[in-house]
Amino acid sequence: MSAIVSMQQVTKRFGPLTVLDAVDLEVQQGEVVVLIGPSGAGKSTLLRCVNGLEGIDGGTITVDGQQLVQKGRELNSLRRRIGMVFQQFNLFPHLRVIDNITMAQRDVLGRSREEAEARARELLARVGLSEKEHAYPERLSGGQQQRVAIARALAMDPVLMLFDEPTSALDPELVGEVLQVMRDLAEEGMTMVVVTHEMRFARQVADRVVLMADGGIAEQGTPEQVLEHPTSERGRAFLAELGGQG
Amino acid sequence: MSDFLSAVVESWPLFFEAAGRTLALSAVALLLGLPLGALVAAASMSRVRPLRWFATAYIGLVRGTPLITQIFILYFGLTIVLLLPGFWAASIALAFHNSAYIAEILRSGFQSVPVGLDEASRSLGMSWWQTLRRVRGPLAFRTALPSLGNQFIIAVKDSSLAAFVTVDELFQVALRATASSYEPLTYYIIVALYYLAIVLILTLVVNRLEHALSKHRRS
Ligand SMILES: Nc1ncnc2c1ncn2[C@@H]1O[C@H](COP(=O)(O)OP(=O)(O)OP(=O)(O)O)[C@@H](O)[C@H]1O
Ligand SMILES: [Mg+2]
């Protein structure tokens, strides 16, 4: 096994606030890691650091054998190998579904229109949205938009997919269709880091659950270990709260 | 009424030529004003603080002084160093004047683009420039278009001030026709109709463009 992501002593501050405090984390090829933890724990920040949307104040991050730099062409070329899926979908509203998926393929990978569209159609079929190819994002439901966003990220042939609460903005009845796509992706062996509150997904799909709290990793292990038998104080408190809610 | 119509017909060649000059003034004002406004907008959003100061000062200065003053400074005020023909004094002053407003319009257009879209584009490996060209620019332009169209209309009407630096544009021709005919009502109404026609055509063009660019908002 080889590490796709390797974070070493990563520190991230926002002004006086230390959000990530010397965090170490490795993600192996084909591994699905689910990040959980209370609000403000730094889950989003960690994901954003991994693809350089946030710069770091200390430590190193290596993705696919290449050390992340803070800006420039190297960062761009690394980013195209890291797919990112946002809570708010962030589809380009002025582009049709198909163009949302072909834009970066053509601009970044230099694929021809035909190649890019063929790849886009293949992915749309995979997420079950072939008939929406010519629709504008605004015409799609949240679940459909998120599936297009996943297809858009996959079109770049990433070695790693990052998901930041991909179902949190969705109506409950639309959550399932997005999780199903993610499940399929995991089964095909995609390396994934997923921030989610969907504990069922974590239980069923995660190889490893990482519980973050107070700027660090409070606990990690198999879903069974972390979700059923947490050993840390923070882990117990967080899961008790979840249990209390649901 | 028939007197009015015959005045319209008789004055047609003069006004038609003058309308061309009005359009030329406006065109220069916009062709220079747009890129200048874009530069000032870029400066106002720059990470370099002195550039932002410059933009603020420029916009404040240009918006804080009457256009006629700016035209007179270029036409009468610079004679020691530079003799500008009326047409260029007026159109360049118009360009500066409009660039300040255009800068503000473009800036708020860019600020209306959600940060998440920029991040989505960058996370696909698109460079800053590619993101500007494909995502932020087009979206900012769509938002800015109604205000830009409005500003273009203001520019056309403001070009009438060029009459005061000897340019034979529409208003100047109306002034002269009035002076020789002693029929101010007739010729001011005629010139108003010419402006109105130009503005209507411009409005139509902008609306068309808006319509074409907002396909994503319709089913
Ligand atoms: N751009 C920023 N500027 C300042 N503070 C920030 C910024 N982004 C995040 N923070 C702070 O960093 C901390 C961690 O934020 P982060 O979004 O990573 O948490 P999270 O674990 O994703 O929480 P949630 O479950 O609510 O999404 C929070 O206290 C947040 O207020
Ligand atoms: Mg978050």
TrEMBL record, chain A:
CDD domains linked to this entry: ABC_HisP_GlnQ
Membrane topology: Peripheral membrane protein
UniProt-listed InterPro entries: AAA+_ATPase (IPR003593), ABC_ATPase_HisP-typ (IPR030679), ABC_transporter-like_ATP-bd (IPR003439), ABC_transporter-like_CS (IPR017871), MetN_ABC_transporter-like (IPR050086), P-loop_NTPase (IPR027417)
UniProt main location, coarse: membrane
Metal-binding found in the keyword field: no
PANTHER family assigned to the protein according to its UniProt record, in alphabetical order: AMINO ACID IMPORT ATP-BINDING PROTEIN (PTHR43166), GLUTAMATE_ASPARTATE IMPORT ATP-BINDING PROTEIN GLTL (PTHR43166:SF9)
Official protein name in the record: ABC-type polar-amino-acid transporter
From TrEMBL, chain B:
Membrane-topology annotation of the record: Multi-pass membrane protein
Transmembrane parts of this sequence: 23-43, 72-96, 185-209
Location in or out of the cell: Cell membrane
UniProt main location, coarse: membrane
Domain (ABC transmembrane type-1) ranges: 19-206
GO molecular function terms attached to this record: transmembrane transporter activity
Hydrolase among keywords: no
One family name in Pfam for this protein: BPD_transp_1
One of the record's GO cellular component terms: ATP-binding cassette (ABC) transporter complex
Entry keywords, A to Z: Amino-acid transport, Cell membrane, Membrane, Transmembrane, Transmembrane helix, Transport
Annotated GO biological process: amino acid transport
Family: Belongs to the binding-protein-dependent transport system permease family. HisMQ subfamily.
PANTHER family hit by this protein: GLUTAMINE TRANSPORT SYSTEM PERMEASE PROTEIN GLNP, MEMBRANE COMPONENT OF AMINO ACID ABC TRANSPORTER
Protein known as: ABC transporter permease subunit
Organism: Auraticoccus cholistanensis
